[in-house]
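Attaching the record inline, Q. Sequence:
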Amino acid sequence: MSTIRTLQRSFAGGEIAPELYGRVDLLKHQTGLALSRNGRTLPHGPWESRAGTKMVLRQKYADKVAYFVPFAYNTEQTYIIEFGDLYARFHTNTATLLNDSQVVSGISQANPGVLTYVGADFTNGQWVYVASVAGMTEVNGRYFKVANVNAGANTFELTDLDGVAIDTLAFGAYSAGGTVASVVEVTTPYLEADLFDIHYTQSADVLSLSHPSYRFRELSRTSATAWSLDEVDFDNDIEPPSGLSIDTQAGSVLTEERYRVWPYYTSGGLIGQPSPVAIVRVNRATTSVVLRWPAVETNTTAVTRTPDKYIISIWDGVDSHDKIGETTGLSFTDTNAALGAAVAA
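Structure, as predicted:
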């Protein structure tokens, strides 16, 4: 009896219908699969197992939903951002992002167990990760919720993530070493009910967040463990120059001129609000006009900014401003130069 051998050229055809099982003459049969589970076929023919998932850490609130957003700076720096009820957490490299670790100097055998640390104080309700403890190895590689912080003694009680006290009486005795690190968390204004209406877009280390019920915000990564959420202010809060004064000279043929001064910031090409109009009647043919104004300082997000220069314009009294010059000082002399480019109102 002859032996029939089937040529399996590749798996690029994917699954085929049972009706084609007998069509050994078809190319599709020679590149197809009767069944493919937990895998995928590649364009050039091979079949590979699908990527798996790993339980990194449960979300902060077991009884509430969370919204997960990808964040990728490059192929080596990728995160999943967990947005929950009034918070955001960060997961990367199959682990949850942690703050710098602190030294553990002791853990009691008690109910609840009490951990003693060296360094900055923790806060009640904070999640922490314990590692590298000698003796009481049962606590290694586990997350705990901080309870009853004693800042004077640098201690806190260990509870599980549901707030139930951890009984360490049956654990091995602590002997030395260990580290404890808190989970990186950013406070957000987003309530659980509003999470899935967040719209986002990323540029480099900044994730821009918009929502129909909240002001526009930007989530910024300034280092591996430093993240901040800041509200974006679209209002122009730059103070205009005030107290614009003019030195005038008499002339035989007078023309009325309306001057304004605009603060200009090189960063972002930002032009602030103009000064009030200063009106003077001058002889444009023979007379120079000297404008003076006090310095402008604008407090923006607790930072004092001063203009990089000032732009001087003449206003037609309706809607057009013609630039006549610019200066980095606090005065300008108009010597009847030709009008320049228009300055937007």
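Residues 337-345 have pLDDT under 50 and may be disordered. The helical segments are 27-30.

More tomorrow.
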